[in-house]
């Protein structure tokens, strides 16, 4: 009888100089880990190498000895630096053979677009002898699977839409066949603003008894901290109890619970957008130092934004500027952060309606940050201010990085 | 006599659930590869694992057998999911010992900030017995180095500013001591817009004889394609000759040569900003579908932007809207892309001065893209239009994705 291993090792192997040298961000890696996690499958590791044939061959050999399943991404294009199929063949001492079936698909693909197939694309129909083709209904790079050193390798295209479709439709079902039934994972998340990661962690470690098998993780994207508890489905009642305790600890800084959009980069904007729609309020936005980030996040969250302005210079009379734009555009609320002063990190948050203009002189007292981070912090303060305004809460919440001036 | 290996293997080991599961982007990895490349040192691979003690121990063992130098990043913080020092000690069968020297630094760090050191930070002064401390003058996580299986391991903090400073000041000099003198690399780059990667690659492969040791790489960030030739310093004359030939092939689509900013994400905006300053022209920007991306890129490139507006709704009379803003703000040029229609991907590019309003009805004819990519494409078309306007070139260049309407 076969020996069932307690943990299947699945690695993603990302290929390409532009990924190794960080010229592009490996969004496929992020997506894959998250997608498989939701399906109860845990990626154990990720490995990245460049476009070098001998390195690729060595890596396929070595990583196939270390893993049960290897998902290889990239290197299936038509150009001379796309080497995955060739490396796979050489790693297994095989030759490349022409897959007539895929060649026909390629010719059809170009015909449908009113073009002849460029000769360079023939390469995309050449697969290692032992490989089985995996269909790509939306692109020219087919995938394939094969065994090397008893590890199951899936080769996938680098284009994100093609990669995702192939993983969902073709590869996930195969992985499930090879993956033992496991206790599926529960994952609870919440998002806070205004405290540091170590400060939160220390309070939680000190007060709570965290059961074994349950892990608490933190993710900081200044000034937002996401807190996550992960544990087995079988410990749901312990998880629920712990989660209530955690929520009471973070209560003053809680922005929202759960995940609001795929990568959760602008969850706060989604919360604000929903509040604006629910309360039937429209906004105009005025930005300076944040250079459009508040507007971009709210627009992407489909908030009722009537108009947005970026005014690079300091405003002499901000209150009347806000009120004027509010009237001109017939909006309910004007919101913005303006007049940021480099020398002392002071700035003004304004939330204006036709009835009143709320005006806060604030000072950022956290450690110095990159300009981009500083912009993210200002945008988050504005969005949180608007959230609090809409919820009838004090506009400035508990926040270790902010001092209220005057 | 020692046997000198022809290639030193250097791997970066990124740790952390949030990196493995793609919740944060591994910007340290991108930065490190690029920084070392500029110094003539090539990272051979990158490996990523999560915050699991036994996986970390196994990985340190295994990767130290495969490499000469391992740069480990992350897991040095004060919280319970920071496990790097503990894993390093266990991988080498050592215990953790308190470094009094670093404990004093920590106490000083907190004292200077008017706080007592939280107890959880003591952990950051516990290092494996054989480790040598590496100073971190700006944070609480010291680095350290040690040998495992004859591989030299450097442990570094995850906070980007601390990581970069430690690599530059402490680790680079040590790597150089361990790295054989190599022929340093030449890397030429140029950036194009309006052709696809495979189209460019096919023409170049067909026309040019690429010498061995010289590699041509492509990086596509829709709609921008960067082309890069890399080869040894000793082949400079072949490189120069090849580069001239490549430039004559891409000429109609060339945006600029070289690297304009660190990650080159908005090189085009930097080109436009420089032209605006050189010609003493100021701009106002009006955006709709691009939701502020044109403005953000130009502002970040320090362009003379007087004001920027994002108008979510279609404009009835765009010409007069642009002219009005131009006059009100006393700018020289009003630029923007507006009235994007989802149903047919048509939109209008306007470049207006007080003398004339240039008005182009365009249609995007590339394949369908994510909304973010679509926004990037529109922003690039606007920026390239402005660049061409400032250079007295036809506003719409050779572009396989664009059709001029009417």
From TrEMBL, chains A, B:
Residues 11-178 form the MoaB/Mog domain. It holds the Pfam family MoCF_biosynth. Signal peptide: none annotated. Gene3D superfamilies: MoaB/Mog-like domain. SUPFAM superfamilies: Molybdenum cofactor biosynthesis proteins. This is Competence/damage-inducible protein A. It comes from Gilliamella apis.
């Amino acid at each position: 009888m076969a020996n069932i291993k307690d943990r299947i090792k699945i690695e993603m192997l990302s290929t390409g100089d532009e990924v190794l040298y960080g010229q592009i961000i490996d969004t496929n890696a992020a997506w894959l880990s998250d997608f498989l996690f939701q399906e109860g499958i845990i990626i154990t590791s990720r490995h990245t190498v460049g476009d070098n044939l001998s390195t690729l061959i060595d890596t396929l050999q070595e990583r196939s000895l270390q893993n049960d399943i290897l998902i290889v991404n990239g290197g299936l294009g038509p150009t001379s630096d796309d080497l995955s199929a060739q490396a796979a063949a050489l790693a297994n001492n095989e030759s490349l053979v022409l897959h007539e079936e895929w060649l026909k698909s390629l010719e059809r693909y170009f015909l449908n677009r009113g073009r002849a197939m460029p000769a360079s694309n023939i390469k995309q129909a050449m697969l290692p002898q032992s490989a089985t083709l995996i269909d790509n209904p939306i692109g020219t790079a087919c995938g394939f699977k094969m065994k090397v050193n008893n590890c199951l390798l899936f080769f996938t295209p680098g284009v994100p839409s093609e990669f995702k479709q192939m993983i969902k439709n073709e590869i996930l079902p195969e992985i499930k066949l090879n993956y033992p039934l496991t206790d599926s994972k529960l994952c609870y998340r919440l998002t806070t603003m205004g405290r540091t990661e170590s400060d939160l962690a220390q309070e939680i470690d000190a007060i709570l008894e965290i059961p074994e098998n349950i892990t608490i993780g933190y993710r900081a994207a200044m000034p937002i901290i996401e807190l996550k508890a992960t544990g087995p489905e079988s410990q749901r009642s312990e998880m629920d109890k712990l989660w209530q305790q955690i929520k009471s600890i973070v209560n003053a800084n809680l922005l929202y619970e759960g995940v609001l959009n795929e990568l959760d980069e602008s969850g706060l904007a989604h919360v604000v957008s929903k509040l604006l729609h629910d309360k039937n309020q429209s906004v105009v936005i005025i930005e300076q130092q944040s250079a459009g980030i508040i507007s971009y996040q709210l627009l992407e969250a489909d908030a009722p934004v009537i108009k947005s302005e970026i005014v690079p210079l300091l405003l002499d009379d901000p209150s009347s500027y806000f009120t004027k734009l509010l009237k001109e555009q017939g909006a309910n609320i004007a919101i913005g952060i303006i007049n940021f002063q480099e020398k002392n990190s002071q700035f003004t948050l304004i939330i204006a309606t036709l009835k009143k203009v709320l005006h806060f002189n604030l000072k950022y007292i956290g450690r110095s940050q990159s300009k981009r981070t500083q912009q993210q912090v200002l945008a988050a303060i504005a969005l949180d201010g608007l959230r609090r305004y809409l919820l009838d809460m004090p506009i400035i919440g508990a926040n270790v990085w902010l001092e209220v001036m005057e």
